[in-house]
Amino acid sequence: MKSGRHNKLLAGLAAADCAAIVAGRHGQPFDVLGPHSDGADGCWVRVFLPGAAEVRAVDAAGGAIGEAFVLRHHEGLFEGRLPRAAARSYRLAVLWQSGTSDTIHDPYRFFSTVTAFDLWLLGQGTHARPYQVLGAEPCEQDDVAGTRFTVWAPRARRVSVVGDFNFWDTRRHPMRALGTSGFWELFLPGVGDGALYKYAILSGDGREIEPKADPYARRAELRPGTASIVMRLPPPVPFVESRRAANALDRPMSVYEVHLASWQRPADDAHGFLSWDELGERLARYVAELGFTHVELLPVNEHPFDGSWGYQPTAMYAPTARFGDPAGFRRFVARLHAAGVGVIVDWVPAHFPADAHGLAQFDGAPLYEYADPREGVHRDWHTLIYDLRRPQVRNFLIGSALYFIERFGVDGLRVDAVASMLYRDYSRRPGEWLPNEHGGRENLEAIGFLRELNTLIGTTFPGAIMIAEESTAFPLVSKPPSVDGLGFHYKWNIGWMNDTLRYVSRPVEHRGAHREEISFGLMYTHSENYVLPVSHDEVVHGKRSLLGRMPGSRGEQFAHLRAYLGFMYAHPGRKLLFMGCEFAQQREWNHDGTLDWDLLSDDDHAGVQSLVRELNLLLRTQPALHAWDDEPRGFTWLDVAQQHPAVFAFLRSAPTGETALVVVNFGAETLRNYQVGVPQAGPWRIVLDTAGVPARRQKREFVARRSPAGGQAFSLALDCGPLRAIFLQQTPSQVA
């Protein structure tokens, strides 16, 4: 190679470009690095390898191509000339200043594999599966194994991939800007599964901000680590017909809500966690044995602060590393499914934490969040609010929802804090919020987002469940977008929960004046498809445990709780019970510990657990208790504390003609010859008594005769002890 030709190249490299590459501030590294035609039959190659002493190009067999590269800058910028035919296949033989040597591939000789169509879809926010393009994907280019990194950072001057493979050096691997799309991409040969990485971003105003975790990371470090981890895209999990059928609206649903980190812990390590496999085995066995149809997991996305319970996630695509890797989570879901139990996960699109390594000011300015704090800051939770006006942000969130259903096989999502999304003035005083374009308080872009989300989930995965935690009177939450609904399948009935828990917390003698706290829920219960939630929020922060809310002596507290659970299971709506409530945990939930499983050695606690098992069995086997949950014809009041101040009686009906009679005595007195109306004559038998009275000690069958009561043509008289709920059944074949 002639020195004159080489000097010509050196003269053509602008000093500013050289300085920017060496300083790690060049926004278009492919304009400088990699192969570039010399206008004749060769190409010039520039590489930046800090710490290198000598570099030369070699072929696949290790044979030298041309002469050794010339050092252009003492920090490690080299250049040399190669035949044009070698431009797509050369390797770099590097002698390092430490005395070691390597043969590596040059990342800057590879073309981008992100298509123009992908970029258009991502820019429009309509990519069906953005996680197939964005993030870190192990792959091969030109038969070379590595990982393609792709990220959205539209206002960045420069984005670099940093990781344990390049000493976290922002100078070594600056990315390619894909035109003016705002997306950046780089293929790194030799980087594969398990590599730690982040994105180092130079902001639009020239600031080097703290390296960011990948928004689309499929795996993340366990706290206090904050790096993303390269992981191959998991294959889809088929949404099989048996799951679809089990999730149908007319099927029974009884949900066990679980915070996995504190459900059970290793016996020899109170501060450690069980693995996904251990949790799957234990939880599947326990939940199936108690007869729950589904589990609902508090958020499993990676989150840095244990005390957030997962509701401040920093990785919307990565299951938490607390229990193992994402493959373990797939096995966990499969193990629950094998036991006949569906899996719902809490999912948080309402807000995100302001951790410096996360989404906050991702490219040096508000990107995922609203810029104006009157829109973009949750004052209650000290978190940031997604800017749902941006199509890329909507695509990011909807992609996350699809990812957990498609790639992990979960049955559905419970969407957290929907009320905070729907209203711009949520938890804000006058002057602290901005109205919508029509001057109203509704967040129109959030409403549109939720409809888009639920429509896409419903069409892509028929049978998947979408549940809203929504506490206001916003209309049609669980109705289809075609009739101006939000498109959820279910809505949490938080009003029912507040009213009924307030009622059962009152002393018995005061309940007569508050009957509406039991009855009011039936005024609106058929306006939505409801879930009755006795959730984690009701057993923390000084509210006491469910058992602890009940008045009276210890024995009375257990009786109150059993009667309340009976009423809950008899009431229209799907059931949700937080872990520990099924055996009457005595103390408040502590996310840093484990449930008090030793309480099950006590007969009273074991008795509550046994009752929950019986209630779940009855719910699953008696259509009258679930088939018409959402239909007014499925419920009929017989007595709203009219004969006695704390006694309620009602009928539940099914399309099969089966009928259930439920009497709940929240009072302290035994009912003698309590007359209750029924629609049919003939024998009615007790199928469940929350007091657990053995059959040998009570009458189990009653005969209804023509004697009007409670608006019914027939009636029967029965005895019912204090603080209990009894279920009676008459099937069509029993009609006299």
CATH fold label of the largest domain: TIM Barrel
Which parts are unreliable, with pLDDT below 50 for 5 consecutive residues or more? 1-11
Instruction: Look at the helices and sheets and give the structural class.
Output: alpha+beta
Please give the largest β-sheet: 8 strands, parallel, barrel
Q: Spatial order of the strands in the main sheet?
A: 16-17-20-23-24-25-26-27
Query: How many domains make up the 3D coordinates?
Result: 4
The CATH architecture name of the largest domain reads Alpha-Beta Barrel
Assign a percent range to the helix content. 10-25%
CATH class of the largest domain: Alpha Beta
What can you tell me about this protein's structure?
The structure is a single chain. With 736 residues, the chain is an alpha+beta fold. It has 4 domains: 3-109, Immunoglobulin-like (Sandwich); 116-229, Sandwich (Immunoglobulin-like); 241-492, Glycosidases (TIM Barrel, Alpha-Beta Barrel); 632-734, Golgi alpha-mannosidase II (Immunoglobulin-like, Sandwich), CATH 2.60.40.1180. Helix content is 23%, strand content 26%. The strands form 8 sheets. An 8-stranded parallel beta barrel has the order 16-17-20-23-24-25-26-27. Strands 28-29-30-35-32-33-34-31 form an 8-stranded antiparallel beta sheet. Strand 3 and strand 4 (64-65) form a beta hairpin. Helix 9 (391-408) runs parallel beside helix 11. The longest helix is centred in the C-terminal third of the chain and has 19 residues, at 603-621. It is elongated.
